[in-house]
Here is the input.
Amino acid sequence: MVTGQTKDVGFNIGVSKTIDVPLPDVWDFMLSDEGLRLWLGEGADLKLKEPYETVDGTVGEVRSLHPHDRVRLTWRPHDWDHDTTVQVTVSTSGQKTVLRFHQEWLADATERETQRTHWKAVMEKVLAHLTP
Here is the structure.
């Protein structure tokens, strides 16, 4: 196996950041229309066990949604032939909040690196809205 490959979920990637913003504020932003647009895509409306589709054609289904903790969903851009699983979590670290994007079932090391770049860029956009 190579970096980022597991025997259980194939290739995966995680990007996290600890920020000085209260957890409820981070959670509320991530599930707001503006937050969803930044990390998931324009037009996404998340409802538990319901499919979603973004304006750019990314599709999936919400698998679990635990308020102030995590949302887990399938994620497949319009030009992919397979689903992946994305989980967004928030947790506390002292007085700060840890925001994490984790994606599983990536096809290979190349797709993993592409998604690393993607989630790092998403994180920067989210942080620009959450931190002064």
User: Anything to note?
Assistant: The longest helix spans residues 109-130. The CA atoms of residues 66 and 92 lie 15 Å apart.
